[in-house]
Structure formats: structure tokens, C-alpha cells
Fold:
Amino acid sequence: MKLPRPSGPTLLFFLPMLALPLGMLVISIMAVTQPVSVHPEPEPAPAAPEEPPEPTRVYHDFLTPITLSLPANRGTLNVEIGVALPETFDRALEKTLLNKPDAILGNLASVIHGAVETQGSADDPTQLRALISEVLLQAINDNLVAMGEPPDILEVLIVDWALLR
Structure:
């Protein structure tokens, strides 16, 4: 038996037709077997020390203003203040400020008067206002310690003030 042999024109037709699928097979094998390039992970930057977040603040204002006469007859000062305190679960300090404002505000006029006498800043309103905030913060915290409370006042806010000459 004699096997049929393809003729020359038939081979010229089928060989180019097989080139495309064979080429795709070779390309897909190369794509699958290529090594994967792995980039090294960058070194993490040294972590900056994290600062603890500031406590959430609660603001409390006092209804009673502080009124005093400045030394050397330089006028009358009327100051309304508020305080910033840390927010706590039981709000014990805020309750103390609400229930006993006289114990906290009682000596603040004399503290301001003494600070103005020593600093001599009654002539400049800008210096006077800055001095009042600093002095009152220390005085209110001292009053809280004298009452047996923690000195947790963060800031004294001057809500309103008037300097009458």
C-alpha cells in the first residue's frame, strides 16, 4: 500500500497556517516561564516618636466677673473669664466649678492686683491682657489644689474685659 504524499502546493498552504498557532504556543510558554522580577521593599523610615494626643477639652465660663481697681489709681478692670479643662468621664472638675465658683474666684482680684503691681504693666493693655491669662491660670490651679482637687485647668480664656480709666 502506498501512502499518499501531499503535493508541494498543499504543503505551501498548510505550513504557513501552522506557523501562527505554533508561534502563539511558543510565546505563551515563554511568558509563563519567565522569572518574575521582585523589587526589594523599601526600608521603612524610622518612626517618629508619637506624641500623645491632646486631651479633649471642655470649656466652662464663670458668670461672675472679676472687678478690681488698678494700683496707683490707673482705672478699674473688669474681666470675665472661662477655663479650658480636660474632658473626663465623670466631669468631677466641671461639677466643682459649677458648685463652688466663689472658692475658685475669691482671691483672683487680689492676685491680678499683686501681679500688676510687680510687673507694672497697667499702662499697656496688651501686656496687661497677657499677664492676666498667665497669672490666673496659676492662681486657679492653686485654688483647686487648696480645695483638694487636681490642678487640671489647661488654659484661662478671657471672654470679655474692660479697662475703665
Summary: The beta strands are 57-61, 66-69, 76-86, 155-164.
